Amino acid sequence: VKKFETIKQILGEDLQKSPSHSIGNAFAPSNIALCKYWGKRDQELNLPVTSSLSVSLGSKGATTFLEIIQDNHDQIILNDVVLQSDSPFSRRLVTFLNLFRSNPQLKFKISLHSNIPIAAGLASSAAGFASVIKALDQLMGWQLAPQHLSILARLGSGSASRSLWQGFVEWHAGSRDDGMDSVGESLTETWQDMCIGLLIVSAKEKILSSRVAMQRTVTTSSLYSAWPTKVAQDLATLKIAIAEKNFSLLGQTAESNALTMHATMLSAWPPIFYSSPETISAVQKIWSLRAQGLEVYFTQDAGPNLKLIFLQKDAQAVQMNFPELEILQPFSN
Ligand code: PMV
C-alpha cells in the first residue's frame, strides 16, 4: 500500500499510461558502501535508519534487457539461464514489476546479465534493481530524473538507490514517512587513483539474505543502538577524507565502519557471521601488510568476500600479495 502511494507521487497520471516502447535496455553499476546501510526504519519502503555512502564500480554491474511478451506470466533469465517462476529471485523481481504494470496483463521477458557474482555480498542486487528500473523507464516512456528512479529502485533493494550514478554517492536517510526524501545523491568529488580490488573467496550464494540479517540485528543486537552514532561520525569523516584526498583517513574509516557493522551482527541472536576461514586469513594478511607499510584497507558486506581499497601507486604490490584479486578503478574507466 505504501509502495503504491510512493509510485503514485512520482508517476501521477503516467501510472495508467500504456508502454511507449516494446523494449528497454539499461546498465547500472554495482556500488560498494564505504559507510554502510544496515537496518531499516520501514520494511515496506526500504527506508534506512541511517544515511550511507558508496562508490560505484564503473563497468562492473548489471545490464537488463526488458521486452513485452504475449504470455500469461513473466519470463526471467539470469545470466542466460531461464529461472523457475518460484525461485526466490524470480518472486522478488515479479513482485517488484507488479508495482509498475499499467495493466495486469502486461507481461515481460526480463533478461539480466551481471558481470559480478550474484548474491555473494558484492551488491549485485543493487545493480540488478537499478538496471531494471532504468530499463522500465525507457520501455514505459516515463523519462524520470535519476533521483526519482533512485526512489523507485529502493523499493526493490535499499542499496539500489545508490546505483543510479557512477562515483561517490550518498543515500540520504530522510525523515519523511513516505520516503520521498530518502534518495541517492551523486557527490561531485572524484578520486582518480583510487582502486577497489574484488577478493572473491567464495562465489556461492550467501546463507542469509541481508533483509533477514538486518532485521534480526535491529531487533536483537544490544550493540545496534550504537550504530547510528558511529555512522554519523564516519559519514562526516569520509566526506572530509574525500574533499582533502586523505587516503589513510578514508581507508581507516571505511574499514572501521564495516567491522562495526559486522560486530552488530555478531551480537544478534541467533548470531550472524558472514566470514569464512578464507575471509579471516585475508583480513589478517591485510593487517600484516599494513604493519609493513603497505596502505591497503578492506570493506565487507553481507557475504564472505572482501573489497580491498588502495591507491594506484600500490596496485602492483597489492596484486602480488593477492594474485587472484580483480582490480577496478572506479574513476578512470
Ligand atoms: O540493499 P540490500 O538489502 O541488499 O542491503 C545491502 C547491505 C550492505 O550491502 C551490507 C551494506 C550497503 O550499504 O550496501
Properties at a glance:
globular; binds (3R)-3-hydroxy-3-methyl-5-(phosphonooxy)pentanoic acid; 333 residues; 35% helix; four-stranded antiparallel β-sheet; single chain; alpha+beta; seven-stranded mixed β-sheet
Overview of the molecule:
With 333 residues, the protein is α+β, with helices and mostly antiparallel strands. The chain has helices at residues 2-11, 88-98, 124-140, 146-154, 210-220, 227-244, 247-266, 277-291, 315-321; strands at residues 23-35, 40-42, 47-48, 52-69, 75-78, 81-82, 107-114, 168-171, 184-186, 194-199, 297-300, 306-311, 326-328. Strands 1, 4, 5, 6, 7, 8 and 9 form a 7-stranded mixed beta sheet that branches. Strands 11-12-10-13 form a 4-stranded antiparallel beta sheet. Strand 2 (40-42) and strand 3 (47-48) form a beta hairpin. Bound molecules: (3R)-3-hydroxy-3-methyl-5-(phosphonooxy)pentanoic acid. (3R)-3-hydroxy-3-methyl-5-(phosphonooxy)pentanoic acid (PMV) is lined by residues 33, 36-37, 52, 123, 125-126, 157-159, 210-211, 301-302.
Q: Unreliable segments (pLDDT under 50, ≥5 consecutive)?
A: none
Rg to the nearest angstrom?
A: 20 Å
- Summed up, the helix count is 9
Shape: globular
> Which structural category do the helix and sheet elements fall into?
alpha+beta
Strand content: 15-25%
Bound molecules: (3R)-3-hydroxy-3-methyl-5-(phosphonooxy)pentanoic acid
Whole-Å distance between the termini? 41 Å
* Main sheet specs: 7 strands, mixed
What is the residue-mean pLDDT, rounded to a whole number?
95
Give the H and E element order.
HEEEEEEHEHHEEEHHHHEEHE
E-strand count: 13
Please estimate the helix content: 25-40%
